[in-house]
Amino acid sequence: MPSLFRFLTAVAVIAGIVYGVVFALANFVNPKPREMTVTIPPDKFLKK
Fold first, then answer.
1. pTM of the predicted model, to two decimals?
2. Does residue 47 belong to any structural domain of this protein?
3. Which domain of life is it from (predicted)?
4. For the chain, what is the domain count?
């Protein structure tokens, strides 16, 4: 039984670290907005 608790504790610690990294990325990294242009070939508009 102690090995199960050790395993679950390790999984919980790893999950907490991953959650913290995702939280930090979501709140402290600001993306730069920029314009985007996509050219669509005219044959995509033709019905087949």
1. 0.58
2. no
3. Bacteria
4. 1
